[in-house]
Amino acid sequence: MHRVAPHLIQDQLAPLVTYGSHPLTLKRANGIVLDKPGNPSCYSPSSFRVIVLLQTCSKMLERIMNSRLSCVARATGLLNAHQCGSLAGLSASDAVTTLTHEVKTLQMAGRKLSTLFLDIKGGFDNVNPSTFCGILRAKGVNLYLVSWTKSFLTGRSFRLLYQGSPRVFAPVSVGTPQGSPVSSLLFVIYVSHLHCEIPHRLTLSYVDDFGLTASSASYRRKIQILQKQYMRLKSRGTRLGVGFSVPKTELIHWRTNRDRGPISNAPVHLDGSVFTPKSEVRWLGYWFSPSISTTPHFVNRLAQAQAAFVAVKRLSPPGIGLPPFLCHRVASSLLFPILGYGADVFMPTAHMIRKLAVFWHKVQRWTTNCFMSTPTHILAIEGCLPPLELLIAYKRRLAHLRILCSPPEINPATARLPPSVQTRSLHRHSPDHRVLSARNAESRLPLPWLQSRPPSKNRAHLPLDALPHSRLFLFGPDGLAPLPVTSQHLLTDHYPEPAPGRSYPQLKLQCRGLLTKEWEEASPGPARYPYRPSLNPHPFMGLDKFSVGRIHQMRSGKSYLPAHPSWDSDAPTTCPSCQSAPETFEHAILHCPAKEPSSTRHLQVMLDVCPDAPVWSSGALLGALARFIKSTATAFPPGMFSRPTSAVSSVSSRSSNVVSFGYFMSSQGNQVYVLCFSCCPLV
Questions:
Q1: Pairing label, strands 156-161, 28-35
Q2: Is the separation of the CB atoms in 425 and 436 below 8 Å?
Q3: Three-state SS at 632
């Protein structure tokens, strides 16, 4: 519709924006009920979540208003600097980075810290339209935005869709629809008044998840501060009509590995309930321990990745199913994000990296259909999936780059960078808790960010000071060149444009090139394997999985070819078809005299299989190679056919009009294969 009449949508939505109105026809929506994971009881309404399915035109209008309202909210102070959810340029990692930096900074000053994690009960359902519009008017927001927001939140009706539902629309007088593009922003603005700035304390939030951190010289005083801070937060929430969920409230007492005192089990008393400190707390998908050890987090991430892998690998068993191209996409866009979530903030230990790498090797082997005896560095190159330690370093590099390029007014982590690190503005968070550690002995002072860490382990960088130190290659010749911002449209007009050649996408491309360079240096590969690493899937990975598996195995030098022994090194290496030379990859494809009829028919212009050969970039040649492998049964498992290979080749070389599918069980490796070959009727 937009291609035929580009002005149609604009003509329909422009009057609605100008006059601040949301049509009544767009306020009627359907709701579906989804169960919340991890809730054991299905009899409680709190175990379910209602997602509203809105009309497409309504979502387009809401997206426009979300963009305008987000800019106005930052300019008029509707948002707090420590809100990190549902806002452009921010993520959960920014909130976690800010929390860990503040905890370690105050610990260096010798203070005791605790954090109380809270969750707003039914947050989206408790937004009051009148109260919200009053907040907008108090900040001087344009009247058309106030009018549209009031029109959007009032007069709504929806119906629940489930088996046996009455399918009757019911009015909704309070709340914002969960599933709308603008609902999250409206809720974040609504609860921004819950934040309060108190020295040596921190209130962080991600949408409806809050974290209250208090520090003191003693545990008793720290508990009193937390309880007082919670009562202040509860009082402000009562005026807004929101409360906190008791079952989701958790407490943790932070400590360092150097603490020799007894572990504090002091509880906090809130609204008649007692909350004892926990040894592990999950917040925003990150698992925290009192010493901020990264092992509990990655143990949980590994378990979740293994569970997901068990489910998705059924889509592509060995030899059949999805082509490796799609398996590569599943591995890179589903399995690694689950496995590596949190690696941008938490650095796994060397022992934990080895455990994660074992799982990653299984994913690479599933993608390529290679054998267990295939060297892991060759396996990574064949699957176009870099080693895990390099992927984690690349993920951390991108996260650090995003923080360094973000405006300090928007990102609370960027606002805590050292003042000498030049960003797009000189704004920094106040107060800076670095000054509290100035009374420490010189041997225990935090290192300046430009200074390298000495061999002694007594001194170290603060978390956000170590970030620019490890990324000095991104700065200019003097080490202090300003970096570009993440998104220019988030800023006001007084910010200068980024310098030529230093844009954020170009720096990301530089990090990607650095990943490839590190991969080549870390895994050069043996001389018999000439292929180079690539982050993009090989073109031949788009063929059927059985053919691609044969190609991967022959390229890696671990296949069913006699010259590629994987188990018995004393077996003969001569080609069983011609008995004239060892059956290597080149011989089996290009030089075997017994396969010359099939080679003449399929591989008419193929002259080489070296890394730079045209066959690896031509779709026509790759298709011909796959047909040649199937017609000659090259690198097929032994005993796959009861007749000689020459018989299969002679039958397949005839013209045919019947296609047969066969499933075969290999005698080695217990792998199931599917073979699609053509045969002609016997006449």
A1: parallel
A2: no
A3: helix
